[in-house]
Design brief:
The complex is a heterodimer.
Chain A lengths: L2 H20 L3 H23 L3 H17 L6 H23 L4 H19 L19 H22 L2 H28 L3 H21 L3 H27 L10 H11 L5 H16 L1 H11 L2 H10 L6 H19 L2 H6 L3
Helix pairs in contact in A: 1-2, 1-6, 1-9, 2-3, 2-6, 3-4, 4-5, 5-6, 5-7, 6-8, 6-9, 7-8, 7-12, 7-13, 8-9, 8-13, 9-11, 9-14, 10-13, 11-12, 11-14
Chain B lengths: L1 H18 L3 H23 L1 H19 L14 H21 L5 H20 L3 H20 L8 H13 L11
Classes of the chains: A mainly alpha, B mainly alpha.
């Protein structure tokens, strides 16, 4: 298994442990543990299988299992994302393997990038959400739990699958799609009416940074991507869970804790997101400095959305307050000293 | 010649899945699709792969006969766009597989592209669980062919995995969605 994938599986397991430990209801904890364990096993299987094609079968199986768990969205909506993803990824694999003109290699890169976007649920394949739906059956599972492992595996295996000439197109597509998601996700997290949708768009914006990092072929880009993925799994996901699980405790909205949470979500210093953004800007500067300017401008879009999401936590109490404090502490630790995380991923 | 006929049968099967709403039509489509894919797989990856696909297709077809809308319901009223999709997808895949791509194995390329594309399109356009799961199963079988594309001697594992997945999916009965 590739080290990044192993690290992301461990992080997903830690996020699950957090969810189980700090969920306010006992019934919800049992359900989270059961369904989350299935997700962890699925993510581990995606990383463990030896070929790209077998990973597609695991994604398809996981998509079917996720579509039949109890939820409020229709089956067709829940199944569509994974099936479209597998369709595009498989077509990409076919185009990558056949002999022919260069255009087929570029179509392979398009298929794989589009398939990755469809699997994770970022633009242009946003999975529809239902604000009343439980987290275990919502698209957040793909955005923040299984998606990071899937992205690491797909990108690593695609690089060996695609011919050398198509690698440039693959990277450029990732960066282009990443920028679209940064801008759209950042603006929508700020302007959308629904709180659940705002959380979803904030994940999308983070994924924009991940895609840019994965597309930048220099080491700092890969490092930035793994740090943003860390921040998705162990910052945004737990805070999203706390926010969505405690809807009745939101009377107080402008406490210092809300500002600190907003800072963590926006990737301010000293949280992990800040280190990721610095690395990403450095990588962009190494390759093509105007890209760094565009990224820096896009990063400003996190501020209003994060302030809004920070307020949505209300005033965490008891078990949830401990959980929020733990998340913030871990993110400060990784932000100040990210080296162990990067070394574990061999980056 | 045999591979070309098998590719046509696979396209026909995928088209029947796209054009059907009833359990018999869907079962016939997945059986035809699996038969075509199995013949291609025999040439590409050997008898174990072909046997797996054939068995997986049979199990999937049998599972589909047990649930879903009664009857055939092939080409019901309003299915002209689906028919156009099947023909256009077939022509496009044929052009790419035989005209744009080079080298041997055009039937394999055609079958992989057209069955993957039509299965994915069926899931995008479908609403009923039996239709969705039938198309997903057929997609699994065709993804195995994608694994065999461009390789000299592909392993049988993707074909086995595809058969298990397609056979299992057809027997799933999802719980109805609760009203909000």
């Amino acid at each position: 298994m590739q080290p990044e994938a192993v690290e992301l599986i461990v992080l997903a397991a830690a996020a699950l442990a957090f969810a189980v430990a700090f969920s306010p209801r006992a019934a919800s904890r049992r359900e989270l543990l059961g369904k989350g364990s299935v997700g962890i096993v699925g993510a581990a299987a995606i990383a463990a299988v030896p070929t790209f094609d077998l990973a597609l079968f695991v994604v398809l199986a996981l998509g079917v299992v996720h579509s039949v768990v109890e939820g409020k969205r229709p089956l067709a909506l829940r199944l569509r994302g994974p099936v479209v993803a597998v369709t595009l990824l498989a077509l990409g694999a076919v185009f990558a393997r056949v002999q022919g003109p260069d255009v087929l290699e570029r179509l392979a890169a398009v298929g794989i990038v589009a398939g990755l976007a469809a699997a994770v649920g970022v633009l242009p394949y946003l999975h529809p959400i239902d604000p009343e739906e439980q987290l275990t059956s919502s698209p957040v599972v793909w955005l923040a739990f299984v998606g990071p492992v899937l992205a690491a595996v797909i990108v690593e295996r695609a690089q060996s699958l695609l011919p050398v000439d198509a690698a440039g197109a693959f990277g450029a597509l990732l960066i282009g799609l990443g920028l679209v998601n940064v801008v759209w996700g950042g603006a929508a997290a700020w302007l959308t009416e629904s709180e659940a949708a705002a959380w979803r768009y904030s994940f999308v914006a983070d994924w924009g940074l991940v895609l840019c990092g994965l597309g930048l072929i220099v080491a700092d880009g890969q490092r930035a991507a793994i740090l943003v993925l860390f921040s998705i799994v162990l910052c945004r996901l737990p805070l999203c869970l706390v926010s969505l699980e405690a809807p009745r405790e939101k009377a107080v909205t402008r406490r210092p804790v809300n500002l600190v949470v907003a800072a963590a979500l926006a990737g301010s210093a000293p949280f992990a997101g800040f280190a990721a953004r610095l690395l990403l800007l450095r990588a962009a500067t190494q390759l093509f400095w105007p890209l760094a300017v565009v990224l820096a401008a896009g990063m400003l879009l996190w501020l209003p959305g994060s302030l809004r999401l920070g307020r949505s936590l209300g005033l965490p109490k008891g078990r949830q307050a401990v959980g929020v404090a733990l998340v913030l502490a871990v993110n400060v630790a990784v932000g100040l000293y990210p080296l162990p995380l990067l070394l574990a991923a061999h980056l | 010649m045999v591979e070309a006929a098998a590719a046509f049968v696979a396209w026909l099967g995928a088209s029947v899945v796209v054009l059907s709403d009833g359990r018999r039509g869907l079962a016939l489509g997945v059986a035809l699709g699996a038969a075509g894919i199995a013949v291609i797989a025999l040439d590409v990856a050997g008898p174990i792969a072909a046997g797996s696909i054939a068995l997986g297709g049979l199990v999937a077809a049998a599972g589909r006969l047990g649930s879903g809308r009664e009857g055939w319901h092939i080409m019901p009223a309003g299915s002209t766009p689906r028919l156009v999709l099947c023909i256009a997808a077939g022509l496009l895949a044929l052009w790419v597989a035989a005209g744009v791509a080079t080298g041997p194995g055009a039937p394999l390329r055609f079958t992989a592209m057209v069955v993957i594309g039509l299965s994915g399109a069926r899931v995008l356009g479908g609403e009923d669980a039996p239709v969705l799961f039938t198309a997903t199963g057929l997609l699994a079988l065709s993804v195995a062919l994608a694994a065999g594309t461009g390789l000299n001697a592909p392993e049988p594992w993707p074909f086995l995995a595809a058969a298990i997945l397609a056979g299992s999916i057809a027997w799933i009965s999802p719980r109805p969605v609760r009203a909000a």
